[in-house]
Write a structure and sequence with these properties.
single chain, alpha+beta, four-stranded antiparallel β-sheet, disordered N terminus
Length: 379
C-alpha cells in the first residue's frame, strides 16, 4: 500500500482510489507546470537574445572577494574591478556576489535587450555596495533576535520530500527545456536547410528566367535587325521611286519650260509684229499729221504774207523786216535791223495797233498773249 507524509494540507488517504486520484492530480499539475515553464523558457529565449557587456565598480573596504555569475573577479588595492560578461539566450539577470566578513551579499541586475543596443555596461558604485552590506547586517541581526519555533520531525520530513519533489520538478523542467531547445535548434536547422534549398531553387529559377530573358532579347534584337533591313530596303525602293519621279518631273518641267519658252518667243514675235504694225500705223498717222500741219502752216504763211502785203505801211515804216512770226492768234512779232542793232515790234492787224516790245513789262506781255484779238485791255 501507499504511505504519504503528514503535513498541514495533506492527510493520509483512506482508500486506494484516493491515492490514485492524488497521484493523478500531482502528475497533471507537474505536466502543466512543465508546459508553463517550457512556454516561459521559449518566451524568454525570444525576448532575451544573447548579449555581452561589462560590469565595473569599486568594492567597499573589508570585501574579501567579488564574483559575477559565479566567476571570480579580481580587484586592485583601491577596490576597483571590471569584468566582461556574456549572457546566453534566455538568461535575464547578471548576478553580482560579494563576500564581506562572513556575509554574502547577492545583487541581481535585469539586463533588458534592445534591438539597437548590442553591448551593455553596468556600473556598481561603492556606496551601493556599502548600503547592501549594511542592509544584510541589519537583516541578520533581526533574524538572530527572532526565536525560531520548534519544528516536528514529520514537518521536517515533509519539507525534505517537498524539496526533493521541487528539485525533481526543476530537473524535469530543465530536461524539458533542453529537449525543447534541441527541438527548436533542429527545427531551426531544418528551416535553414529548407531555406537554402528554396534559395537554390529560386536561384535556378532566376537563372532560367534570366536565360529566357537573354534568349528573348536576342530574338528581339534579331527581329529588330530584320525589320531594320526591311525598312532600309523599303526606304531605298521609295528613294529610287522618288528619284525616278523627280527625274521625270524634271524632264517634264524642262519640256514645259521649253514649250513655255517657245510660246513666249512666238508671243514675243507676234507682239513685236503687232508693235511694228502699230508703229508703222503711228508713223503713217504722224506723217499724215505732219503733212496736214505742213499744209496748215503753208496756208497760214500764205495768208500771213497776203495780210502783210495788204497792210498799209506809213512813210517811216517802209523798211523791210528781217523776220515776222505769229506768236499768238492774230498777233505778229516783227524783227528788224538798223545799223547792226535789232529791235522787235508787235503788230495786231485786226486792231491796227503797233506795240514796241521793249516798252512792255512782263505782266503786259503775258496779258497781251492771253487776251483774244478784238477784246479790249482790262483797266
Amino acid at each position: 500500500m501507499f504511505e504519504f507524509w503528514k503535513s498541514e494540507t495533506i492527510r493520509k488517504p483512506r482508500s486506494l482510489f484516493a491515492g490514485f486520484l492524488i497521484a493523478f492530480v500531482i502528475c497533471h499539475l507537474s505536466f502543466v507546470i512543465c508546459l508553463a515553464a517550457l512556454a516561459a523558457t521559449q518566451a524568454d529565449i525570444k525576448k532575451y537574445p544573447p548579449v555581452s557587456g561589462d560590469i565595473y565598480g569599486q568594492a567597499a573596504p573589508g570585501v574579501r572577494s567579488v564574483s559575477v555569475n559565479g566567476k571570480p573577479v579580481a580587484f586592485d588595492a583601491g577596490g576597483n574591478f571590471r569584468a566582461p560578461v556574456k549572457l546566453a539566450a534566455g538568461e535575464k539577470y547578471l548576478t553580482l556576489t560579494i563576500n564581506y566578513e562572513g556575509l554574502r551579499v547577492i545583487k541581481k541586475y535585469l539586463i533588458v535587450r534592445k534591438s539597437e543596443v548590442n553591448v551593455f555596461k553596468v556600473f556598481v558604485p561603492k556606496e551601493k555596495i556599502e548600503k547592501s552590506i549594511a542592509e544584510v547586517k541589519a537583516a541578520r541581526k533581526t533574524t538572530a533576535r527572532k526565536k525560531k519555533p520548534a519544528v516536528s520531525p514529520e514537518t521536517l520530513r515533509a519539507r525534505e520530500r517537498a524539496r526533493q519533489l521541487a528539485a525533481q520538478k526543476e530537473k524535469e523542467r530543465q530536461l524539458a527545456a533542453q529537449r525543447e531547445k534541441e527541438r527548436l535548434l533542429a527545427a531551426r536547422e531544418k528551416a535553414k536547410q529548407e531555406a537554402i534549398q528554396k534559395e537554390k531553387e529560386l536561384a535556378a529559377a532566376r537563372e532560367k528566367v534570366r536565360e529566357l530573358a537573354v534568349q528573348k532579347e536576342k530574338e528581339e534584337k534579331e527581329r529588330r535587325r530584320l525589320a531594320a533591313i526591311k525598312e532600309k530596303e523599303h526606304l531605298l525602293a521609295a528613294q529610287k521611286e522618288l528619284l525616278a519621279a523627280r527625274e521625270k518631273e524634271r524632264e517634264s518641267a524642262k519640256q514645259k519650260a521649253k514649250e513655255e519658252k517657245e510660246r513666249e518667243r512666238l508671243a514675243a514675235i507676234k507682239e513685236k509684229e503687232r508693235l511694228l504694225a502699230a508703229q508703222e500705223e503711228l508713223l503713217a498717222l504722224k506723217e499724215k499729221e505732219l503733212e496736214r500741219q505742213k499744209a496748215e502752216a503753208e496756208e497760214k504763211e500764205r495768208a500771213l504774207k497776203e495780210a502783210i502785203a495788204k497792210l498799209p505801211m506809213p512813210g517811216p515804216r517802209t523798211f523791210e523786216y528781217l523776220y515776222v512770226w505769229e506768236f499768238s492768234e492774230g498777233k505778229l512779232l516783227a524783227v528788224k535791223e538798223k545799223q547792226g542793232k535789232y529791235s522787235a515790234e508787235i503788230y495786231i492787224p485786226v486792231e491796227k495797233q503797233w506795240l514796241n516790245l521793249k516798252g512792255l513789262s512782263d505782266e503786259d506781255l503775258k496779258e497781251l498773249i492771253e487776251r483774244p484779238v478784238g477784246v479790249k485791255k482790262k483797266k
